[in-house]
Description:
With about 775 residues, this protein is an alpha/beta fold. Among the domains are: about 390-595, 3-Layer(aba) Sandwich (Rossmann fold), CATH 3.40.50; about 650-765, Immunoglobulin-like (Sandwich). The chain is about 30% helix and about 15% strand. The strands form seven sheets. The chain has a six-stranded mixed sheet with strand order 11-16-15-14-12-13, with helices on both faces. A five-stranded parallel sheet has the order 4-3-2-1-10, with no helix packed on it. It is globular, with a radius of gyration of 27 Å. The termini are far apart. About 55% of the residues are buried. Mean pLDDT is about 95; it is low at about 1-25. 1-deoxynojirimycin binds near residues 62 and 87.
Amino acid sequence: MKVQLAIAIVTIALTACMKNNSSNTKSTAAPFATEVDSLLSLMTLEEKAGQLNLYAGSWEFTGPVPKDANNQQKLENIKSGRVGAMLNVITTEGTREAQKLAVENSRLGIPLLFGYDVIHGYKTMMPIPLGQAASWDAEVARSGAQVAAKEASASGINWTFAPMMDIARDARWGRMMESPGEDPYLASYLSKAWIEGFQGNNLSDEATIAACAKHFAAYGFAEAGRDYNTVDISMQTLYNMVLPPFKAASEAGVASFMNSFNEIGGVPANGSELLQRELLKGAWNYQNGFVVSDWGSIGEMITHGFAADTLEAGYKALTAGSDMDMEAHVYENSIEELVSTGKISEEILNDAVRRVLTIKFQLGLFENPYRYSDTTREKADLLTEENLKVAREAARKSIVLLKNENNLLPLNKEGQSIAVIGSLAADKDVPLGSWRAQANEGSAVSVLEGIQGAVSNKSDVSFAQGYTLTTGRRKFVYELEFVEGDQSGFDEAIQLAKKVDVVVLALGEDCWQSGEGRSQTDIGLKGDQMDLMYEILKVNKNIVVTLMNGRSLAIPELDENIPAILEVWHLGSEAGNAIADVLFGDYNPSGKLPVSFPRNVGQCPIYYNHKNGGRPATNPHDAGMVFWSHYTDSPNTPLYPFGYGLSYTTFEYSDLSLSSSEMNQAGEIVASIKVKNTGKVGGQETVQLYIRDYVGSVTRPVKELKGFEKITLKPGEEKVVQFTINNETLSYYRADLSFGSEPGQFALMIGGNSQKILTTDFRLVD
Ligand code: NOJ
């Protein structure tokens, strides 16, 4: 019997390969439908339920460790076909071993998926996603994901839990580092590119892996920025701000979705029929991929108070459309009973299983279950020169110049003495960032190394540690301990600063200050960093701060006192080289902030695309009156706005004009603007288009990004940039949640950031 079944599977697989050689997830006809259905018809209830279980490997935990973890039992379950996928099983050897258990022992030999958090690289680290977002460049996202896929797939992984496309408005939330920022247009643009990079055109290509759009949905709106906290937002915010990147991901053919830990309006995402059945699998017609839960989250519906027990949690999650259970062990303890007693129809179960099998066929796992576990590739494809080149290019494009008084930057490679100060400057680990997959500890190029490598004479560069940020190396699940009050390194740093022409002061956050479970109420600089800055200022005012961080920070004192500031995030393997490229002007900085930088934590959440309200502080009002929406101790505006970023040259915007001041819903308007490079060096500018709908059936934000174009201009050169506005540009999810536009007056704004813009009006008529 077993042999016959095995032959059946092989036949299915071969036919599948012949028929679907070039199939990709974007095709509208269900790929491998015949093969999936024939396999499904052979499966027992137990085997079907088994495909929906995602187990963690035993050596790396990225969630709470299950107390009853019984590895032996896990292995037995794989052998008996009760497991569909594994996460955190790594290396070709590890994945081969686990795959063998499934393929050679289970009745039908269905191969496993191997999932892993390949977030911004596998061995070669790209900038953290928030940093990549600052490039506003799809090529940065795409090529970085391509390298990550190539490396991970060479090491046995065939499924990544990325990209994360949660909108992040609150810097207290540790996962801002993993997000594309606060804007849904930019987030959709980048998420699409990340998916293309991971998946390529054909999932069965061995250098591509299945992607996962997460976290569905609204995880970034956790109250008070505290991870895993309750989310309670309006339908309009959900539809207009949160969901657009997910819809774009579905349209891009992403292989899977991961739902989120949070509840929204009283319903945990796992149990949300609205999100999963009505929207994703209904209105968006997402048919060829599956929805995986987050770690343990199906079981957490009980803790939320949404399900009384395992059986109810299993029922609610599966009927709502959660297809796979990550480490909650709810499905393995409920599905068979729920289906055999008729509480859940077998068709619901079949639908979930079909989705999982479809992706396995698309990945080519039935053709060769070990195709991603290739020792030769694992040796050849990781951390190559070519991959590092991509990382350096991505890193320099992600840097944002926040301030450059009196053109202190760029520095000279010769004839200028430089003191590099701060423990973060010599750190070879922090730049790798949080969520770093299999990066080798301490493998990044440090700021100091980058600078030393760039100058003509090494003796022009000296180093002093100054402050110590944390007590020592820590592993990713442990809390950090900050050093405070140890100023024993100050003197050496101050003496050095006295002697040199310029100080490069590295300040910022440790990489483990951001990431999952790492929310903070203080978003300033920890430890003794600010004290050191003030001490150095007393002896040398020529300070360039390189700011390394995983979230937007509140740094008003830096802005007030320091002449030049470079936002360098956690830039990955090539951090130091990329930073040196910018410091010395080999690359003219072109990054733009994907999030607003607050003046203080009290402004959080702060974001540019907010509503006007009835009493905006911008309205003319009687001086001295307090009855306006404002703070009595802080301006409303951010320190640095969304879209902001300087260059070593300057750009002048003029001559904003429209092809017409009126359009109807079938028509369009072309907006033109002249941009001139008014400085002395060539540079790249990101020209940004914002729209405001003055009056709507529900109120609309004061501005929303609707397009952007990156242009490169030589000194003195000018270009006319054009944007086409059509009905889609003006449409949104209205009061009744239908998508469309509403006639009336609109503002059109174009500029180099969300605050410095030229504005004109036009009308949409019936
Ligand atoms: C929990 C995180 O929220 C999710 O993003 C990640 O993919 C899983 N753990 C697996 O590590």
